Amino acid sequence: MSSSESIVPLYLYHTNDLHSNLKQWPAAVSFLKARQTFHHRKQETSFFFDIGDHADLANPITEASRGKGNVELLNEAGVQYATIGNNEGITLSKEELNTLYENAEFNVLLANLFEEDGSRPGWASPFTIVNTEEGVRVGLIGLTVPFYPFYTELGWDIRDPFQVLSEVLRTVRPQADIVILLSHLGYPQDEEVARRFPGVDVILGAHTHHLLKSSVIVHDTLIAQCGRGSYYVGAVQLLYDKKTNQIIKKDGAAVDVSIEEPSYRTQQLVEQLQMQADYCLAEEIACMPEEVPISWDSPSLFADLLTEGVREWCQADIAMLNSGLLLESLPAGPVTKGDVHRICPHPINPCLVEVKGSILKETIASSFTEKMINLPLRGLGFRGEKLGRMAFAGAEIVMADGGSKTVRQIVINGEPIKAEETYKLATADMFTFGSLYPGLAQSGPKKYFMPETIRDVLMFILQKKYPS
Predict the structure, then answer these.
(1) Alpha-carbon span 205 to 184, nearest angstrom
(2) Distance (Å, rounded) from C-alpha 186 to C-alpha 207?
(3) Strands 221-224 and 216-218
(4) If we measure between CA atoms, which residue out of 319, 328, 335 comes closest to residue 295?
(5) What pLDDT was estimated at residue 3?
(6) Angle formed by the axes of helices 264-280 and 68-77, to 10°?
(7) Which residues face 409 on adjacent strands?
(8) Which pLDDT value is given to residue 397?
(9) Where in the chain is the domain with CATH 3.60.21.10?
(10) In what side-by-side order are the strands of the sheet with 127-131?
(11) Which helix (H) or strand (E) holds 408?
């Protein structure tokens, strides 16, 4: 075998974090299909991956099909291997996730998700070994970010990805010439994998929406990510020397596909799925006798109505929700599932948290600041423009005179709030982690209502008060 004959090129293409941006997907698929045709003609080995969060219930197609429309789109795109993101994993019920991939024409790889009895879900494999036509053994492993309380509420056993990877690598590495990790863990965690696990050659990453226009090398491991929305597609080339049993080159980039001519077949499929979604979401669920307005800057009846529903749903002492969760006012007349989805598209869950009065008082005061009302939040499931003014149920908030945004008094159950008393607060899950309200994030215990979203609560309170 000559030196040139021993060098085998392998090509990897990956999408991640589409978040059901189906207007852009046909352009990304156009690029993928062109590469599939190119490598097939040259008889070269190529792989096509999706690294999770392809589905997002903020899109009506995903909502109506419960993610199965996204699987159809991945099939049509020619994706061969995928792992799941948190949007597939914790915004769908356990039953929905268990049936999501029943018609998938690709392999789902996921090593750190288990049933409660310790068995693995039948729709996923922890890893696979692919023997290419050139005789190179490629090991593929999938991992997803472990949002422990959410998976637990849904009846799953999600495990530490680093511990699981250590175990899986002991099986995969001896069988593989090249090991590729499909990682929906986030870029900082990908860097940690590269530092801790020299047995991983390539990490195709997702979750944190990093756009690495040129892939990076950390401890001889290549890390690639291509942002959010599939405006970019990742392209990685590996050169493997069969004589020395070594990868002699790793190179990758995020390719701008935003101006690609959209795939006509993909566009047709999206249009077909949209028609099915429109039909499904046309079901009438309530009828409003008059308009219920929303305001993001001042008190509004619509925000109060939703907050009342969350308090009842969670059986809480009080409830607080930001008005920015409601994107439009609700007009008089029939209300459909589609209307509710359009007005409240966020994959955000109700949460019940036990919180001391002192923390609650501090949180409520902070919520009335201009900074919080006008905060243009990105992430945590929020799909609106800004947080908006907080609405309350079960509590009377007395403001200082003169139009001030300063809270003068908080009354709960007819009495001023007590600093040392513990209250059951119903709110949106996004306020119980991260840095928005640190006091709530550190309070507990917490109960997350899964898989119900704030949208389900809105539907519940509308059906109860305004039945059609």
Answers:
(1) 6
(2) 5
(3) antiparallel
(4) 328
(5) 53
(6) 170
(7) 398
(8) 85
(9) 3-277
(10) 127-131, 137-144, 178-184, 202-205, 221-224, 216-218
(11) strand 407-412
- Give me the long-range contacts of 399-406 (CB less than 8 A, separation at least 24): 399/368, 405/368, 405/369, 405/370, 406/365, 406/368
- Assign residue 349 a region (left: φ > 0; alpha: ψ between -120 and 50; beta: otherwise): beta
Is residue 302 within 8 Å of 293, Cβ to Cβ?
A: yes
Q: Low-confidence residues of the chain, pLDDT below 50?
A: 1-2
d(CA 20, CA 267): 14
Q: Which amino acid is at 120?
A: R
Concatenate the DSSP letters of all residues of 328-354 into one string: S-B-SEEEEHHHHHHH------EEEEE
What three-state secondary structure class fits 4?
helix
Question: Which pLDDT does position 16 carry in this prediction?
Answer: 97
Collapsed DSSP state (helix, strand, coil) of residue 5: helix
- The 10s digit of each residue's pLDDT in 426-447 is 999 999 987 889 999 999 899 9
Q: Which three-class secondary structure string do you get for 159-216?
A: CCHHHHHHHHHHHHHHHCCEEEEEEECCHHHHHHHHHHCCCCCEEEECCCCCECCECE
Question: ω before 451 within 30° of 0 (cis)?
Answer: yes
Cα–Cα separations (whole angstroms), residue 356 to 121, 321, 410, 419: 40, 18, 13, 6
* pLDDT the model gives residue 403: 57
Domain covering 3-277 in this structure, CATH number:
3.60.21.10
Per CATH, is 283-465 categorized as 3.90.780.10? yes
Q: Virtual CA dihedral for 100, 106, 109, 115, nearest 10 degrees? A: 30
**Token code pair at residue 402:** 């003169």
Residue 148: phi and psi, rounded to 5, are -55, -55
CB 349 within 8 A of CB 431: no
- d(CA 310, CA 322) in angstroms, rounded, equals 12
Q: How many CB atoms lie within 10 A of CB 327?
A: 15
pLDDT for the residue numbered 402: 57
pLDDT digits (tens, 9 = 90+) for 29-64: 999 999 999 999 999 999 999 999 999 999 999 999
Q: Which are the contacts of 267, defined by CB distance < 8 A and separation ≥ 6?
A: 26
DSSP state of 267: H
| Other beta carbons less than 10 A from residue 157's beta carbon | 16
**C-alpha closest to that of 360 among 394, 388, 324, 387:** 394
32-61 burial: b if 16+ Cβ within 10 Å, else e: bbebbeebeeeeebbbbbbbbbbbbbbbbb
Q: Where in the chain is the domain with CATH 3.90.780.10?
A: 283-465
- Asked if 311 contacts 394 with a C-beta cutoff of 8 angstroms, the reply is yes
Q: Which residues pair with 354 in a beta bridge?
A: 424
